[in-house]
């Protein structure tokens, strides 16, 4: 009942705001001069696309652009989902939401994200990738994915750099403001989520100047309550005799995500030759998750439909994480005759705080269940007796309690100097400069394990699930049974002394401090010869790296401190040739260097008898030589067709590896770490087309079509040792996270009042994670996905617009399989989401 009331309240709020806004508009119209004619126009798809294509056409690099329209809105509500519409781009989703961006099949951690030219560090302890859904879309003026880097750009991306340019007061003439409200309904959770946002900018006159000082601000808040249903094996299949399953889990996630973002930007142009700016951004992402799960472990591996004994558990995880991102960039440009001096100073800080929470509360079944099994290898469902659904059948075994805090800061100063000159009548420019950046990442984890409750005098009745249950949970994939109350668990352990349960091994092995200092310098020259433009240059990057942490060897602690430095000289060459007024060729040879993730570089280790797990702070950075060749043809308003070939020769790619049986790990049964591969290659073809058919008779002149696809292939080799025999092994693989086919199709229509868009995004399956070098059957793959979305905008008045969006209309699940698509690793459903909103804009 409560959820229904919430839905009615928010929908009622939306339509109440709609009524008030319309009344305000009618009052303004009544006060207008008699005879005035109101002109209503949707500023939407074609305008946004046309601006993006103009930026893309004039760029010195190969890049793809998404531009906000005149309403200061991206074509998608989510920044990450707006980027995925571009050629060669796919999105890594978390709980059904697009968050991390993959470029040309390379994983999100191999790309970089910058805001106004300054690197954004990652709030997550193990990653470099930055989730783009935390950025308020109202603050974004344009998003571009730069796929070929010039020497004056950071060389830290293999696939591309996602550059976010925020709103400036000089993007609009005079006063501009917009405000939006929205209610979104998720079919899976049957809950409605609110969103409010707004942006404002204006120009002012300082000194003798006229409208030479600009201020722009934006604010966004939304809260999304939703649910996902999951079943996963974690790859626990035995393929020695057919396909037999050892264990699996059913999971129900109840999730609440709250996003708050804002920015305040200043621009000052005291004269025609000087520009100064200050860009600020703050983003807060609060993720609250309650996960109930049921676990089944068979006494012996069982085939589908077979019956045998099974041990069971019911578990709870309940945690809250808050991620914050702050970015401050101050810079400017000064033209002095033939010279141009520019520079900026940036400071960014990301953090993730997970206060004390239930990392796992485990209830064990009081006895084994006979005649148990499962059916459906893709979405395993249990075959089990009715007692499994009785809370009296389970007793509390242990509670894992954790808290964690991660901080990642990046400070940089950049200075560039350029001079225009003439070479035998041809325009040329030499540019040189340098950049100093300092990055520090810290992770602090504390863990406690509460167990042996019977030794403390608790009776079986006091620890029975009946005392902790929270009603039967809805589960779309079958019957689930009782949930677990997190409050009751907290009450139980709240009276215990936490010092008696502190887990030093888990806590200290996961703590680390890493420092990454990069000094860079470059020299480049641009030369225009008739219809040609050439850019040639050389970039130097020197890196100093240090990682401090703690290792645990059979219960004894060892301090770890690794220091190293390395240097890279990175040449580059770009060429652009104007075939005719609307057609141009592009070619580029570039070089890039990307550091491994912080999880891969982690200095801590845990060695317990013949089992070891550790990071590798001595990993080499990934190096790539990149070749691009393509053609672009522009066709009037919002029209283009393009084709690009690309090839990447990658050295030192990183993969997870089991070193057991080799070197100092000869006598170990498991030794999991990370290693550098020798070389890998990635090549492909990008095709793109868009067109507004404005030359056709009505209503066909409102049709807009867009399509793009990327076809790519990769190859790599990994080496290892057979732990059983000690024999050397080698295996050819695809690069992890690389989809062979990525594509978008968009069909839109708009006139002066109405804008409609139906879009589909497709990504083929890809290798997610490697198992042992001689265990291809347990490699995990993510299955192909197709997402279909629909959006509609209608201009009620000149300044008032109503919006409707429907996402994931096909109810596309997330499916990970082990070796073969018939065998589950993870299956998750989210359901479609429908939203209704209202936007008021003055410009």
From TrEMBL:
<dbReference type="InterPro" id="IPR000531">
    <property type="entry name" value="Beta-barrel_TonB"/>
</dbReference>
<keyword id="KW-0798">TonB box</keyword>
<dbReference type="Pfam" id="PF07715">
    <property type="entry name" value="Plug"/>
</dbReference>
<keyword id="KW-0812">Transmembrane</keyword>
<keyword id="KW-0675">Receptor</keyword>
<dbReference type="InterPro" id="IPR036942">
    <property type="entry name" value="Beta-barrel_TonB_sf"/>
</dbReference>
<dbReference type="InterPro" id="IPR012910">
    <property type="entry name" value="Plug_dom"/>
</dbReference>
<dbReference type="InterPro" id="IPR037066">
    <property type="entry name" value="Plug_dom_sf"/>
</dbReference>
<protein>
    <submittedName>
        <fullName>TonB-dependent receptor</fullName>
    </submittedName>
</protein>
<feature type="signal peptide">
    <location>
        <begin position="1"/>
        <end position="19"/>
    </location>
</feature>
<feature type="domain" description="TonB-dependent receptor-like beta-barrel">
    <location>
        <begin position="375"/>
        <end position="809"/>
    </location>
</feature>
<dbReference type="InterPro" id="IPR010104">
    <property type="entry name" value="TonB_rcpt_bac"/>
</dbReference>
<keyword id="KW-0998">Cell outer membrane</keyword>
<keyword id="KW-0813">Transport</keyword>
<comment type="similarity">
    <text>Belongs to the TonB-dependent receptor family.</text>
</comment>
<keyword id="KW-0732">Signal</keyword>
<keyword id="KW-0472">Membrane</keyword>
<keyword id="KW-1134">Transmembrane beta strand</keyword>
<dbReference type="InterPro" id="IPR039426">
    <property type="entry name" value="TonB-dep_rcpt-like"/>
</dbReference>
<dbReference type="Pfam" id="PF00593">
    <property type="entry name" value="TonB_dep_Rec_b-barrel"/>
</dbReference>
<feature type="domain" description="TonB-dependent receptor plug">
    <location>
        <begin position="57"/>
        <end position="161"/>
    </location>
</feature>
């Amino acid at each position: 009942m409560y959820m229904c009331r919430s839905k009615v309240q928010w929908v009622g709020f939306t339509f109440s705001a709609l009524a008030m806004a319309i009344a305000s508009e009618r009052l303004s119209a009544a006060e207008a001069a008699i005879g005035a004619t109101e002109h209503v126009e949707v500023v939407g798809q074609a305008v946004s696309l046309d601006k993006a294509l103009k930026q893309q056409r004039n760029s010195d690099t190969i890049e793809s652009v998404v531009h906000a329209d005149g309403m200061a809105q991206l074509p998608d509500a989510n920044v990450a989902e707006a980027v995925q519409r571009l050629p060669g781009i796919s999105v890594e989703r978390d709980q059904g939401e697009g968050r991390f961006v993959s470029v040309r099949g390379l994983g999100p951690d191999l790309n970089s994200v910058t805001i106004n030219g300054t690197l954004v560090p990652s709030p997550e302890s193990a990653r470099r990738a930055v989730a783009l859904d935390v950025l308020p879309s109202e603050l974004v003026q344009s998003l571009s994915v730069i796929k070929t880097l010039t020497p004056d750009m950071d060389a830290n991306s293999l696939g591309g750099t996602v550059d976010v340019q925020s709103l400036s007061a000089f993007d609009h003439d005079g006063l501009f403001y917009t405000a939006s409200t929205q209610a979104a309904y998720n079919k899976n959770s049957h809950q409605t989520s609110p969103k409010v946002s707004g942006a404002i900018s204006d120009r002012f006159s300082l000194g003798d100047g006229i409208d030479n000082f600009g201020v722009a601000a934006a604010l966004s808040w939304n809260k999304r309550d939703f649910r996902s249903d999951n079943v996963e094996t974690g790859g626990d299949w035995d393929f020695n005799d057919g396909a037999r399953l050892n264990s699996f889990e059913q999971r129900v996630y109840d999730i609440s995500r709250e996003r708050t973002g804002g920015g305040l930007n200043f621009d000052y142009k005291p004269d025609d030759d000087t520009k100064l700016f200050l860009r600020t951004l703050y983003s807060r992402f609060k993720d609250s998750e309650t996960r109930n799960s049921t676990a089944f472990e068979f006494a012996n591996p069982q085939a589908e439909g077979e019956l045998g004994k099974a041990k069971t558990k019911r578990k709870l995880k309940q945690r809250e994480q808050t991620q914050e991102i702050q970015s401050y960039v101050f810079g400017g440009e000064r033209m002095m005759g033939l010279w141009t001096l520019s520079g900026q100073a940036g400071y960014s800080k990301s953090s993730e705080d997970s206060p004390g929470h239930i990392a796992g509360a485990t209830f064990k079944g009081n006895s084994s269940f006979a005649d148990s099994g499962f059916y459906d290898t893709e979405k395993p469902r249990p075959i089990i007796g009715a007692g499994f659904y009785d809370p009296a059948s389970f007793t509390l075994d242990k509670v894992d309690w954790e808290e964690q805090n991660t901080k990642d800061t990046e400070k940089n100063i950049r200075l560039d100097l350029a001079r225009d000159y003439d070479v035998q009548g041809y325009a040329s420019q030499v540019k040189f400069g340098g950049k100093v950046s300092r990055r520090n990442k810290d992770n602090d984890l504390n863990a406690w394990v509460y167990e042996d409750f019977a030794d403390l005098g608790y009776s079986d009745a006091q620890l029975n699930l009946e005392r902790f249950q929270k009603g039967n949970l809805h589960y779309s994939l079958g019957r689930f049974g009782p949930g677990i109350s997190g409050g009751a668990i907290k009450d139980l352990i709240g009276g215990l002394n936490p010092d008696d349960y502190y887990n030093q091994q888990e806590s200290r092995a996961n703590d680390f401090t890493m420092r990454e200092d990069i000094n860079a310098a470059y020299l480049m020259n641009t030369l225009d010869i008739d219809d040609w433009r050439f850019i040639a240059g050389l970039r130097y990057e020197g890196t100093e790296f240090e990682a401090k942490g703690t290792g645990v060897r059979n219960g004894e602690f060892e301090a770890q401190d690794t220091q190293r430095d390395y240097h890279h000289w990175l040449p580059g060459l770009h060429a652009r040739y104007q075939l005719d007024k609307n057609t141009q060729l592009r070619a580029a040879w570039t070089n890039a260097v990307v550091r491994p993730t912080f999880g891969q570089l982690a200095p801590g280790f845990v060695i317990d008898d013949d089992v070891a797990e550790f990071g590798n702070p001595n990993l080499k950075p990934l190096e790539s030589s990149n070749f691009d060749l393509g053609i672009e043809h522009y066709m009037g308003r919002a029209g283009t067709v393009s084709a690009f070939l690309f090839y990447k020769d990658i050295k030192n790619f990183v993969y997870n590896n089991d070193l057991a049986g080799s070197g100092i790990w000869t006598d170990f049964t498991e030794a999991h770490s990370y290693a550098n591969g020798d070389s890998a290659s990635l090549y492909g073809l990008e095709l793109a087309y868009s067109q507004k058919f404005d030359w056709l008779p009505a209503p066909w002149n409102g049709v807009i079509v867009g399509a793009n696809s990327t076809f790519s292939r990769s190859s790599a080799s990994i080496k290892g040792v057979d732990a059983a025999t000690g024999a050397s092994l080698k295996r050819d693989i695809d690069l992890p996270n690389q989809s062979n086919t990525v594509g978008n199709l968009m069909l839109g229509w708009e006139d002066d009042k109405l804008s409609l868009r139906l879009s589909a995004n497709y990504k083929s399956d890809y290798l997610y994670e490697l198992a042992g070098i001689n265990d291809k059957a347990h490699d995990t793959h993510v299955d192909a996905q197709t997402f279909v979305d629909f959006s509609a905008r209608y201009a009620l008045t000149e300044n008032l617009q109503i919006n409707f969006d429907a996402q994931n209309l096909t109810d596309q699940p997330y499916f990970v399989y082990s070796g073969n698509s018939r065998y589950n690793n993870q299956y998750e459903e989210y359901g479609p989401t429908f939203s209704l909103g209202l936007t008021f804009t003055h410009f």
